[in-house]
Amino acid sequence: xxxxxxxxxxxxxxxxxxxxxxxxxxxxxxxxxxxxxxxxxxxxxxxxxxxxxxxxxxxxxxxxxxxxxxxxxxxx
Length: 76
Hints:
Elements: H1 5-8, E1 19-24, E2 30-33, H2 34-43, E3 47-52, E4 59-63, H3 65-75
Parallel strand pairs: 1-4
Antiparallel strand pairs: 1-2, 3-4
């Protein structure tokens, strides 16, 4: 049975924290309220992907989720 990649990373509205540290291309890195981070991702027509959930605040990246999953599988 194949594991579902979406269970490995929370994306977009599945991220339930008040603020996140935002990293990625074409953005100003820093700490943002979750609504602002989601708005920025939406404006770029990309996904907000939680890449370090245990950090304080959690680290999220604005990226194409399918591309992100592909790159993760390629690393393995």
